[in-house]
Amino acid sequence: MTTMAGLSPRAVSSIRDVERHLARGDVRSAEHALPAALVYAGGHASVQRLAARVAQSARRFPEAVSILRDLVRAAPDDIDALAALAAMQLEGGFFDDAAASWAEVCARRPSAAAWLEYGVALDQSASTQQALEVVDKVLAIEPGHARARLLRARVLQALGDTAGTASEYRRLIADGHHVAAAWFALLDIKTVALDEAEVESLARFAGSPKRTPEERTLLDFALARVHEGVGDYAAAAAALDRANASVRSRSRWDARAHHAYVDRLLAEPVAQGDASRGSEVIFIVGLPRSGSTLLEQILAAHPSVEGASELPDLQAVIATESRRRGRTFPEWVRGASPADWQRLGDEYLARTARWRTTRPVSTDKAPENWQYAGVIAAMLPGARIVDSRRDAVETCWSCYKQLFAPGRVEFTYSLDDLAAYWSDYLRASAHWSRSQPSRYRVFRYDDLLADTEATTRALLAFCGLDFDEACLDPRRAMRAIRTSSSAQVREGLDRGTARGNRYGPVLDILRAKLGEPAWQPRGQR
Predict the structure, then answer these.
(1) Which runs of consecutive H residues, i.e. helices, occur in 75-127?
(2) Tens-digit pLDDT profile for residues 269-294
(3) How many Å apart are CA 494 and CA 73, to the nearest integer?
(4) How confident is the model over 226-237, as pLDDT tens digits?
(5) How many whole angstroms separate alpha carbon 515 and alpha carbon 520?
(6) 124: number of CA atoms within 13 Å, CB side?
(7) For the residues 88-110, what does the mean pLDDT come to?
(8) Residue 358: other Cβ atoms inside 10 A
(9) Which of 105, 113, 176, 435 has the fewest CB atoms within 10 Å, counting from its CB?
């Protein structure tokens, strides 16, 4: 609630109007009502904070951050304003700035809550070891802090401490904190097995009628892994169907709209530019669960390459430009000039420069960047795009088995949606492969398994890198891995990841949607 002290009745009334609209979730009406509040009380700090809330609700995070930054400059001793700025920077994806702001908050008014937010910002900015040190400060103050335990588990998993990660989740379960999330996360490590007592405990917890719909979704994903582990594939598929249907019911992903969007992408011409600009970046694209983390790990084992994992920067640059032009992407692409593309490329390079402070080349492994291949070619003509390709059924089924972060890859919660997305991705990949053969190339997971050295040599050559023996053992790449494959990829090449055939005819519905033949017993193939 906005502080009203010293404000006129007219100012109070206009502020109340904005707050009522925000409380109802009516952002457009809040935006229409805000000018009156600014006219009557625009110089009041509380009204400026309200303006930041409106910008935040409209997801105009740069504007919200700018408003709060001005407040901090005007009142440098106001720690609450600094904390509000830090929180807005974190929500808006300005992770390095958020970490710096939270560090200042902790220095001036330390508390477990502030240290925790600082740790979250460090984790998001991929300062993983520092995040671990900060979260341990929280636990030194409050050893039972459940959110800190969750963050510590996440950080340990990124650092490769699987045993420590599992221990944190088991402690949360034993203490009765975030139990459904902890069960899900424990099974989501994918390399940790439950003992018989744990399986029984999970079943009892999941069977309670007191579970919320959100908890049931997490538990169904967890139970599916348990069922698969003991070979009960029908039960695993049933649990996944329940879990995915629950998530899909809250999703707005539209296959037809996505198909039309890809049509527009492929219709846009690819601008030409300086062929050397961007050669220090390798994009790894494809579908989630397609082997992209392994390809990045192979590259990161090279002494010239820093594996940066999934970066938000390309999409942030595009979103910022869309807001600046007042047009959605890709509607403004055709009107962009060579100077515009160079400016956007320079902005991306500046945003990601910290990944190239010790090694000259960095990766960007956001899978959905396949749709921006034309933009990448215009912004960074020297960049290489590695398309990680795995068997269609294995990839789609692996996606269906995975619960992703909220709002991410929403096409994975329906077999129909997965098949539609796969089709769009394939035709776009074929288009980019034809039109940009020197920049865009498909590398297949099966080829890597069949002939690791030949495929690795081809990958390095395409990326402009000399062959290095270290790349044949990607476990040598000592780095934080912040994806759901973090534990699996550290075990090296796994020739047993093809699990679709174990489900037999259970997956024939998916096979049909992907245009693949029905399952046949091994002797009949």
Answers:
(1) 79-91, 95-108, 112-124
(2) 777 777 889 999 999 999 999 999 99
(3) 54
(4) 999 999 999 999
(5) 15
(6) 22
(7) 93
(8) 7
(9) 176
- Please list, residue by residue across 317-351, b when 16 or more beta carbons sit within 10 angstroms of its beta carbon and e when fewer do: bbbebeeeeeeebbebbeebeeebbbebbebbbeb
pLDDT band (50, 70, 90) for residue 492: low
Through-space distance between the first and last CA atoms of the chain, rounded to whole angstroms: 67
Q: How far apart are CA 329 and CA 374, in angstroms?
A: 12
The pLDDT value given to residue 92: 87
Are the C-beta atoms of residues 66 and 88 closer than 8 Å to each other?
Answer: no
CATH H-level, domain 255-513: superfamily: P-loop containing nucleotide triphosphate hydrolases (3.40.50.300)
* Omega prior to 76 cis, within 30 of 0: no
Which one-letter DSSP state was computed for residue 524?
G
- Please tell me the predicted confidence (pLDDT) of residue 160: 86
Domain ranges across the chain: 255-513
Nearest-angstrom CA–CA distance, 118 and 55: 23
Of 106, 175, 187, the closest CA to residue 147 belongs to 175
- Mean pLDDT of the residues in the chain: 90
Taking the C-alpha atoms of residue 142 and residue 58, their distance in angstroms, rounded to an integer, is 36
CA 521 to chain centre: 38
Neighbours of 176 (CB within 10 A): 9
Do the beta carbons of residue 329 and residue 318 sit within 8 Å? yes
Distance CA 241, CA 232 (A): 15
Q: Work out the number of other CB atoms within 10 angstroms of the CB of residue 192.
A: 17
Contacts of 495 (CB under 8 A, 6+ apart): 449
pLDDT for 170 beyond 70: yes
Whole-number Å distance between alpha carbons of 102 and 96: 10
pTM for this entry = 0.84
Q: Indicate if the alpha-carbon torsion angle 294, 299, 302, 304 is positive or negative.
A: negative
Give the residue-averaged pLDDT of 16-45.
Answer: 87
Rounded CA-CA distance 309/378 in Å is: 22
- Burial call 2-35: b when 16+ CB within 10 Å, e when fewer: bebeebeeebeebbebbbebbeeeebeebbebbe
For CA atoms 108, 109, 111, 117, the dihedral sign is: negative
Structure tokens at 309: 């994992």
Strand partners, 441: 386
Q: Name the token pair of 449.
A: 């398994």
Q: For 280-333, write each residue's pLDDT tens digit.
A: 999 999 999 999 999 999 999 999 999 999 998 999 899 889 988 989 999 999
Tokens of 217: 């979704």
Q: How do beta strands 384-389 and 281-286 pair?
A: parallel
Residue 400: phi and psi, rounded to 5, are -65, -25
pLDDT at 490: 47
